[in-house]
## 1
Amino acid sequence: MPKRNMLPGRMLVLWLSAVLMLAGCSSIPTVGPVGTASAEHKGETGEEAVFSPEGPADGASPQDIIRGFMDAGKGAADDYSVARQFLAPELANTWSPTERVTIYRSSRVVAVPEPDMFQIQLEMHGSMDSRGIRTDAPDGSTETFPVRLEQVDGQWRLSAVPDGIMVSLANFPVLFIAHNLYFYSSDYQYWVPDTRWFIQRAGIAANIVKELLVGPAPYLQGAVVSAFPAGTTMARDSVPVASGEAVVDFAAESLRDSSDLNRQQMLNQLEQNLRGLNNVTGVSMVVGQRDVDLGKGNGQLQSAVKDPSAGATQIVVSQGELAYYTDGPEPIADVPSVAEYGPRDPGVSADGSVIAFLDSREDTLLITGPGQGVRTAAEAGKFTPPSVDPRRWVWTAQPSGTGSQVFAVPPGGDRSSAAVLTAPWLEGLTVTELRVSRDGARALVVANRGGRSEVMITGLVRSPEGDPVSLTAPMTLQVPSKAGTVNRAKWASEDTVVAVQTGTEEAAPVILGTGRESEMLSPMAGIAGLSAGNGVEDIFIQTEEGIFNKVGSSWSLRTEGTQDPAFPG
């Protein structure tokens, strides 16, 4: 990927934009093992990662000042006071360290012809915005930051540098922690995760609540709901914790028009978001230091489900018929024979009432179930393997014009009653996989663009009645180049997926997530199918030999003569 060099005449524009980026290198999210933060006794939650970077030395060279400033990004104490020592006085007062975190693999400081000008050239790993939303960069990406220095009392100081800090990949997981915010699905039945990254220091609980009140990441907007209405604010910027109880103090006007049910939903949402922190066992809501009246329970409050289980049973094709598979293939009771269709890639609802599959040519979508016949739901056009959401809608995608379109067939419906969803971002993409998450609020999409694969998560926007309306602009999970051109992917948990390139050649499945580093699994030749159940240890692949399951770092043959395994969803 070619680098773009700075032109001195464009410096003002570059400073205002904060960074000179490679075209096409703004990708999307994930990384680092998810950790937990500890609560301080009678204080705020957060176990601070303590670094003590050194300030500038007398007589330091411009390169030393630049390097020192970069290193000082790991010292957050006193609003990055050490990093500010490397800046000229005026810039030290205006520089915003929390605007952006740049995560790099390697760095170079390069002089340019213009006096007192340098470039910081970084091999990128990713970046994080002020809301803790992380975006990973494609392999080989670089960014170039222009900086200027000046003499202050005979010492070099930075007089122009973009807002934000620069953190090495080695230091990032020590300084920052991944934490899932949780919002409700549109029917309040499920918790939907929104992974954010927070600096590990006192105040993590307050920062979590603040971000929760701001709302979901862009790709989830419209697909999830919050119990807290827009404009809800905290009365103070801290969340003290005493004897395991986190106390959230709200501004009085924020809750004035809320119902009892709404306030109960608020408390549930706070508990779901804060109990992931160590030493937080309960949450209370107060206004003006007085407990918020939650009213009486009337049976309307629902308990939302977090990370629904996929169960232990998969649906497969065995000897030309649909079958369930746990320890071996078993016929599905009261389901008609489908052998005449040459069934491929079946999908099943969580309750087993809806079963969808493709015919042998993969150009007809068929639906059946216990006590039902087989009906044609859609035809004409190559379809992706069907996915069945918690509301029993059947989802698939197919090529359309210069891109792809998504079909969602309602329970009991067919193509005439299907929701047909298009989106600008689907232009130029050939979708090869679409899997609705077990919370029903998101879809995992694998697509090919000009021979290059993309793995994305889009939000599913629904009407008040639950009908699919639109797809949000997605977030992208960066696939390591060594994983090849992946064309299949499955949900392994609420925030983790596994993807693979099928075909005759040897390929290695890769685990991707919104709060973890990618992980390559052991390769296997001739992978033709993939499924995933409850976590990254519950992964299956299919080859000509049969179906294998993941055992440690190896693959173990589970069964022969079956194909196209899929967990419910």
Note: DSSP finds seven helices and 42 strands in the chain.
## 2
Amino acid sequence: MSSTKKIAKNTILLYIRMIINMAISLYTSRIILQKLGVEDFGIYNLVAGVVVLFSFLNNAMTSATQRFLNIELASNIKEKVNRVFCMSLNIHIIISIIVLILSETIGLWFLNYKLNIPAHRLNAANFVFQFSIITTIINIIRIPFNATILANERMSFYAYLGIVETVLKLAIVFLLSLFVEYDQLIVYSFLLLLVNLIINVIYKIYCYRNFKEETAYHYFSDKKLFRELLSFSGWSLFGQVAVLSSTQGLNMIMNIFIGVTVNAALGIANQVNSVLYSFVSNMQVAFNPQITQSYASNDLETHKRLVLNTSKYSVFLFLVLSIPILLHTEFILKLWLGVNLPQYLVSFTQIVIIGSIINAIVGPFWMSANAIGNIRNYQLGVSLILLLNLPLAYIFLKLGFSPVYIMSLNVILNLCTFIFRFLYVNHKLKYDWPDVVLYLKQTFLVIFSCFILVWVIKKIDFSSYFFAISSTIAAEIILLVLIILIGIKREEYLQFKKTIIKKIKK
């Protein structure tokens, strides 16, 4: 199968997974919020985030594992793939032990003495914390298996198992009704642990049956490979700490100054964004193996074209999906949740979505930097920019600024990281200047046009269902026209038109 057809097939499978997951996730989020309440919902998002913060080592190793597996798969030598897998699994086991120690010492102290949790819910929060630790350790050890599946581009299994996982989480909603005499927050976190355990077992069984040679575990010592993995992940570590500081770290700082209500608002805003961004991430997941392997095969022209096109189409897709939310945020949130919205939720949702527009652009550049491999300067630059988020958030909250301003700072820092990432990758790959100018012009003209469109429509203050629907349809049509006229090359448009006509005739 050609690389183009493989990407198309993988993308379709991932989108089927995502659409089903999205529908179920939106329903379950609404019911879980109603069953737990704003306070407990905020506690869960906060406490689970403490454990996630300690898993930064694992996040760094994830990118390293996927990168090295993709490189060795390009060589088509299974023994080398197996060596990477085994060494990666050894390292992940070590990481899980470190996460356990950090969580049960610093994490417990921070949870009980620093976080702003109501006294009557502290016992439940500790149960959630312990269940979250086990869940995180399970997910850490799963990473090499997950990376093997993605590196081999077995997107059908990845898609089907994702649907199974979402359905199991839906079942949790109904199971909660059977345990009404117990603490709903504790039961919810325990059931999520069981779901993760089941999915983890399925991942391992699939890998052992389908990639027996690649995933047959045996202990061996390879100091050179060990150093390469740790060296790569060591610099990735800076980037992962920075990313977590802008999410979980910020979540905790806001909790200290404001309380669990703001954590509930931020948790819901991130869920809305996660649903929208899953469209983009699924498309990028389908392209990522080709981006890495094209660089490993020294096919730099294909690599550069894939990076720019994936970046451009990622942001176009995200704009099309997010414009209804940006136009009618409060209306859609009330329609979805059916409850009184937590304070700051509307503003948080809009700001997080704007931040994700930037993330959609930079995703392929991050994968390109990983493929290049020499990431010390790259990670140092990105990390130093993003880590400014924590001290700035603390200072501004101490001065009495609204959390909305703090979230806006995060968007500005994300924009700074885009500039740095683009310049770094361009320096390494030496893009042709006309291609760079065309890419920047197409991408940012469409983004700015979208923002102007949203601003103009929001100025027309008609609060009715008819206006909400008609303005959204009009905005989508205008945006699609702008993408065709500004964001796509003529030959790309003609090829797309030819393909559509061919499909219709069939």
Note: The chain has one domain: 3-505.
## 3
Amino acid sequence: MDKLITILILTVVGGLIGWITNILAIKLLFRPITPIRIPILNFEILGLIPKRKKEIAANIGEVISNELLSMDDILEQALNNSNGENFNSYIIEKIKAIINEKLNIIPMPFRMMASPYIDEILNKEVPSALSEITADLLIKAKENVNIQAIVEEKINELDLEKLEDIIIKVAKKELKHIEILGLVLGSIIGVLQGILVIFL
């Protein structure tokens, strides 16, 4: 009976140690936010994420830019065929409205006669003109917009406590699993220690 109690105690102690250790390890990812110096040891304690925030921001920016959301992807989505056709139609209708407004002094019969020719010119010229403008915009956008730099800057601007909240919210389930894993592994080690203490 005493042997069983010994194993049980070591199991509980081992589980608690494993659980608390993993909780502390997770906390130390974020805390302390500001450096704590130990003068005698000449040692500084700082959370991993606060310490390497700039490096983390740069790596996230690079991954998003290269693997997830490149400038080419954004522009392709914004200027796909359906969007392009809608944009062409919108511009043509706006030009027609302006022409009708400016030419209202011209008698209606003449405007009706000219309307098919105006429509033909607009339908022919507007898409090609917009294609040229779009091509120029694409080149300028690729040259001037840096997804990686934008993401990196936004992360660096985040308050560390806000960044902590975001990470915990996103990885809450996984972090809880890590805590439970510490409890399980600690308990297993406690059982093994109990067996070794009793039989050796």
Note: Residues 2-199 form one domain.
